[in-house]
Design goal:
Blueprint: H1 2-29, H2 34-57, H3 67-90, H4 93-99, H5 103-113, H6 121-139, H7 148-173, H8 178-196, H9 198-203, H10 210-238, H11 240-247, H12 250-261, H13 268-284
Length: 295
């Protein structure tokens, strides 16, 4: 029963993450500029996390010696948001979702660079297959190399920085709850995004569409807030290995949501690329470090 409950939480988390690609794409195409969206979204999430953590833990304090790592993670997350949001701006949600399928590969590669993991020949072959898949996805953008490739490359930046964030945050998870970590990192990221978004915020004409603001609320409460609770409670119950199996569903679910809700389309070469990415992940059979659920 305990595993069944954890599985429901994991599936709910992955579904929320996957739906975020489609929702964010909709918000970007119906009135909000990229940085205005990201900065206000993170500011709202930071305020909510501060309230939750203050009530649940009675303190927001962290050790001074951990501040450099926490702030470094915030810088990585800031760059991650630039890659993610502008990747969606210049490419389709389904394409960006498929590119994000390389996340486990990037995570292990970065972990190997910093000495946390050791690469094997099997993994090197799997990584090569996955990156060939990314090339096929990019080649299929609008039927060939196009302006969408800029979005694909930015999505790759988003993947690489999220993988780096996953590895960098691991030591902090041994000393603090995900809520207290989120207070510091998301708040600092919100400040960085706010500074970078000053021009877009000043010129932003705020739309009044109910569906758009419902999407905005989802982007804050779902992928940024609820997933933290669900993901880490589930990992505590069943461990990161089982959780990673569910996380691999995210690119597929995200592409399906984009196809159904945004009426996007995928070229056959992109489908082949997505299969290659998934195949590389399966062959690698590696577990990636768990990260705070933020996208």
């Amino acid at each position: 029963m305990r595993h069944r409950t954890a599985d429901v939480m994991l599936l709910s988390t992955v579904t929320l993450w996957a739906l975020n690609f489609t929702v964010s794409k909709y918000v970007l195409t119906h009135g909000l500029t990229p940085l205005a969206f990201s900065s206000t979204r993170y500011a709202a999430a930071a305020a909510i996390f501060i309230g939750i953590t203050a009530v649940a833990e009675r303190s927001l304090a962290v050790r001074a010696r951990d501040l450099p790592l926490l702030l470094g993670c915030a810088v990585i997350l800031f760059v991650n948001q630039l890659g993610f949001i502008y990747g969606l701006r210049f490419s389709s949600a389904s394409t960006v979702a498929l590119v994000f399928g390389t996340l486990p590969i990037f995570t292990v590669l970065i972990a190997a660079v910093v000495g946390v993991e050791r690469l094997t020949q099997r993994f090197a072959a799997a990584a090569l297959v996955s990156f060939v898949g990314v090339v096929l996805v990019a080649l299929g953008s609008n039927g060939g190399l196009s302006a969408d490739v800029k979005g694909d490359l930015l999505a790759l930046l988003g993947v690489a920085t999220w993988a780096a964030y996953s590895v960098a945050i691991a030591p902090l998870m041994e000393r603090y709850s995900p809520y207290r970590i989120s207070v510091v990192i998301i708040s600092a990221t919100a400040l960085l995004l706010g500074a970078g978004a000053s021009g877009q915020l000043a010129s932003q004409q705020w739309p009044s569409g109910r569906l758009l603001w419902a999407g905005f609320a989802f982007a804050v409460l779902g992928p940024l807030i609820a997933t933290n609770v669900l993901w880490f409670r589930a990992i505590h119950s069943v461990g990161p290995s089982r959780a990673s199996m569910f996380a691999n569903l995210q690119p597929f679910l995200a592409a399906v949501f984009a196809l159904l809700l945004l009426s996007e389309s995928l070229a056959w070469i992109q489908v082949v690329g997505g299969i290659a990415i998934a195949f590389g992940i399966v062959v690698s059979r590696r577990v990636t470090p768990a990260a705070v659920a933020v996208e």
